[in-house]
Amino acid sequence: MDLKLSGGVAVVTGAGRGIGRAIAETLAAEGMKLTVAARSKDQLDDLAKSVRTDCLVHAVDLRKPDAAAAVVDATITRFGRIDLLVNNAGATKRGDFFELTDADWEDGFALKFFGAMRLCRAAWKHLQATSGTIVNIIGIGGRTGSADFAIGGSVNAAFRLLTKALADRGVRDGVRVNAINPGSIKTERLDIRLKSFAGEHGIDVSRAEAEMAKASGVARFGEPSEIAAAVAFLASKQCGFCHGALLDVDGGQTRTL
Q1: What residues contact residue 17 under an 8 Å CB cut-off, 6+ apart?
Q2: How far is CA 175 from CA 27, 123, 125, 159, in A?
Q3: pTM of the full predicted structure?
């Protein structure tokens, strides 16, 4: 299927590794030009060398209030337009609610929520000009509460509401806004959890993966490329009537309505 993304310009945050890198690689394969943002310049440089497209590297800490505008300005200076914004940056700390500090909570919201909000605000007029699209990468933790994921769940729930609010505005302004809620995806973060689980239970990592997947109610964990494929489809005209959608890509883990 030709998604007709070729020639467009995408901004992808958290692009240095994991899901963000897979998204950037998939969009590049579809013919999009890229601005990739993350804190690690080395990882972004490696990504830029690996894709066959014009790729602007922007190493930046999106927790800083002026960072989002700088990413957007650099993209407009380089490419003159923005067709797609993918807000993927942001990890939140797990732990016992009573051991999480104010700083932990502030950091959780600073990158994933406020960084994305500022990018949406900075890019909006440029997306209006191209009838562009925003895809927010959120997470299923915003749908089902978990005692050890209080920060992440709260951030994700707020991000889901922001997606709906921006989609409401987008009807008037001609900007489509959707979100993807990944389940457990095979990234470095999941690898760390698997190794920890394996060590605690005295089993190998492959068995830990099978047991953790079973406990989550899924047949297997997802691949970053599967989230990337969903992003490309949501960004395309083939999915042009999807607006304000919150798409769970979690192997069936979420069973609530």
Answers
A1: 38, 40, 43, 187, 188
A2: 19, 11, 9, 17
A3: 0.96
Domain ranges of the chain: 9-185+222-248
Does domain 9-185+222-248 sit in CATH 3.40.190.10? no
- Residue 125 pLDDT greater than 80, yes or no: yes
Amino acid at 165: A
3-state SS class at 249: strand
**What average pLDDT does range 78-100 have in this prediction?**
96
> Which pLDDT score is estimated for 1?
73
- The total of other beta-carbon atoms located within 10 Å of residue 161's CB is 11
pLDDT of res. 2 = 85
CA separation for the pair 102, 43 (Å, rounded) = 30
Instruction: Identify the pLDDT of residue 189.
Output: 87
DSSP bridge partners of 135: 86, 178
